[in-house]
């Protein structure tokens, strides 16, 4: 028998699991806000050079009796398209002759200069953003995207740091303090006096976000019986989906970056307050020689689930007999290097690196530049969030009936096909391009849903968090690299799409080499993983043993899980985490 059987004996997916999963999933509403916050915090308002200090646009408009927009032509030249005012240049001297209706002046020859008096920003879409506050336009425009890159760098660092810490100190402890860190650092970033200070706070906030996503996922998965994981995980991942739409609503309501920053981070104080109710993973406690605590935790779960009779039946001897193999394996400490030592672990890790990188690479390439679609950024965010709903149900159906491997590869191949198809749509067919982008985002979101689940099922308990942190690190590398690819648009407009789609195709090929985990119990040791690869696994059949309900222990170390394996995890962003 294994630990999964103990969960069934203390109530399966009972009242405790419902409360546990719901409370851990609630923060997912705000995780989407963290990952996509830069779309609104650093939104780019329409702008032009401010007029010289000795000129007032309003007074001049009254004096010449012309509209302010027409009067701007005297001070601001048109851009290269000729349809809009230039955002970064102004005339050295006002060109009053341009007010004449029949003016034939050659404006291309008129001397211009930079915006010596700063910029004037349109406030119809955003009241205040980091761009308008710190002038992140023209030559400083790269600093706008740098905020997101720095944040993702923090998420990457957090994946490395908190993945190892949680395997050492426990999922619950690291998760609780990650809530507090994000609450304090996130609200403090709203008080940032400068661009540099804000970037520092965002980096640290990104680390805390990683701690929440990774440990929330593991703590949730390790308390859910195998037969409930897919359906429960997929449904709870909707918290991240709805969080994307909530972000659009909050941003539209507030339209001020400092207020928005506080509103999306303050709820973390609430999550920190109730997170003390969580129970530590009993698996982790046993494997870290804290069996008495694990036993008390299982007794607590049994009572909450209405199984008080199990308190007397479930003893340390019963617990140890169910996890004897895992306890023996846990005497050794594990690091990220152990993920690459054996054949099975090495193959899994290399394939997951490709899948995580490409999924995040394509996802953030589509999701982090909403203003390019020519539609209201608030509406676009709602649409991008809404397409996740059918994507989640699609992932749920394929995960349950087709298995993890086909689902993962299929989502990546489909997203690549849609990205490639968008290359052949003319740029003036904006609606078609937007629809295809939404479909591409839907399949990358489904890929995120699948890979979070798949990773948790492939890595054994003794190194699961380290493995999650290691491979999700490459997801952050992908999210950091995605904006840089957009620069290739200046060389060839189709080049970014070719890169995003090509990466998805390559990752889909890697996914085909991963083992199937449908109907399989979670592996607890590296030996379990290697047995599956070598075909010696005994999970296909259930060996005989006396049920725990009869107060006795099976003599066998391995036992297959009953029923259909239904599992997933949230995020993100996946957002997010994601999401993450």
UniProtKB/TrEMBL annotation:
Gene3D superfamilies: MFS general substrate transporter like domains. The chain crosses the membrane at residues 146-165, 174-194, 200-219, 231-254, 260-279, 348-366, 378-402, 409-425, 494-514. This is Solute carrier family 22 member 6. InterPro entries: MFS_dom, MFS_sugar_transport-like, MFS_trans_sf. Coiled coil: none annotated. It holds the Pfam family Sugar_tr. Residues 98-519 form the Major facilitator superfamily (MFS) profile domain. One of its GO terms (molecular function) is transmembrane transporter activity. Keywords: Membrane, Transmembrane, Transmembrane helix. PANTHER family: SOLUTE CARRIER FAMILY 22 MEMBER. GO terms for cellular component: basal plasma membrane. It is a multi-pass membrane protein. It is found in: Basal cell membrane.
């Amino acid at each position: 028998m294994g630990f999964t059987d103990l969960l069934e004996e203390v109530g399966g997916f009972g009242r405790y699991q419902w409360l546990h999963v719901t409370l851990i999933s609630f923060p997912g509403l705000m995780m989407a806000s963290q990952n996509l916050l830069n779309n609104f915090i650093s939104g780019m308002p329409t702008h032009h050079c401010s007029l010289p200090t000795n000129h007032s646009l309003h007074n001049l408009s009254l004096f010449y009796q012309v509209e302010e927009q027409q009067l701007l032509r005297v001070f601001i030249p048109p851009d290269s398209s000729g349809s809009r005012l230039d955002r970064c240049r102004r005339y050295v001297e006002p060109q009053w002759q341009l007010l004449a209706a029949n003016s034939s002046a050659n404006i291309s020859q008129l001397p211009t200069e930079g915006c010596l008096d700063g910029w004037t920003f349109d406030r119809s879409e955003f009241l205040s953003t980091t761009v308008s506050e710190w002038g992140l336009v023209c030559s400083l425009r790269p600093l706008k995207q740098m905020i997101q890159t720095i944040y993702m760098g923090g998420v990457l660092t957090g994946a490395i740091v908190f993945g190892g810490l949680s395997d050492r100190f426990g999922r619950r402890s690291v998760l609780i303090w990650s809530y507090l860190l994000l609450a304090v650092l996130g609200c403090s970033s709203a008080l940032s006096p400068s661009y540099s200070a804000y970037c520092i706070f965002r980096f640290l906030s990104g680390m805390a976000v990683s701690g929440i996503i990774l440990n929330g996922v593991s703590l949730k998965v390790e308390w859910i019986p195998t037969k409930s994981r897919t359906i429960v995980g997929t449904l709870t991942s909707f918290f991240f989906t709805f969080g994307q739409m909530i972000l659009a609503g909050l941003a539209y309501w507030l339209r001020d970056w400092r207020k928005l920053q506080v509103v999306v981070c303050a709820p973390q104080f609430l999550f920190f307050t109730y997170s003390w109710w969580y129970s530590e993973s009993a698996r982790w406690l046993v494997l870290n020689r804290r069996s008495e605590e694990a036993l008390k935790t299982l007794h607590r779960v049994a009572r909450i689930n209405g199984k008080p009779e199990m308190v007397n039946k479930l003893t340390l001897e019963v617990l140890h007999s169910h996890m004897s193999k895992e306890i023996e394996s846990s005497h050794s400490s594990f690091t990220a290097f152990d993920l690459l030592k054996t054949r099975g672990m090495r193959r899994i890790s290399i394939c997951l690196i490709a899948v995580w990188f490409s999924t995040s690479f394509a996802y953030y390439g589509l999701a982090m530049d909403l203003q390019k679609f020519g539609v209201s950024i608030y509406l676009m965010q709602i649409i991008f969030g809404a397409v996740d709903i059918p994507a989640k149900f699609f992932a749920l159906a394929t995960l349950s009936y087709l298995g993890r491997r086909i689902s993962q590869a299929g989502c990546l191949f489909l997203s690549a096909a849609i990205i490639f198809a968008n290359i052949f749509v003319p740029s003036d067919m904006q609606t078609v391009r937007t629809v295809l982008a939404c479909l591409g985002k839907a399949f990358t979101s489904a890929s995120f849903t699948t890979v979070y689940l798949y990773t948790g099922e492939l890595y054994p308990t003794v190194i699961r968090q380290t493995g999650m942190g290691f491979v999700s690190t490459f997801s952050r590398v992908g999210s950091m690299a995605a904006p840089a690819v957009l620069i290739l648009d200046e060389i060839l407009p189709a080049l970014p799409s070719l890169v995003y789609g090509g990466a998805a195709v390559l990752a889909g090929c890697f996914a085909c080499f991963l083992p199937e985990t449908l109907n399989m119990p979670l592996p607890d040791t590296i030996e379990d993983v290697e047995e599956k690869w070598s075909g010696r696994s005994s999970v296909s059949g259930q060996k005989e043993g006396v049920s725990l309900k009869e107060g006795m222990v099976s003599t066998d170390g391995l036992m297959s899980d009953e029923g259909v394996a239904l599992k997933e995890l949230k995020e993100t962003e996946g957002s997010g985490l994601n999401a993450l």
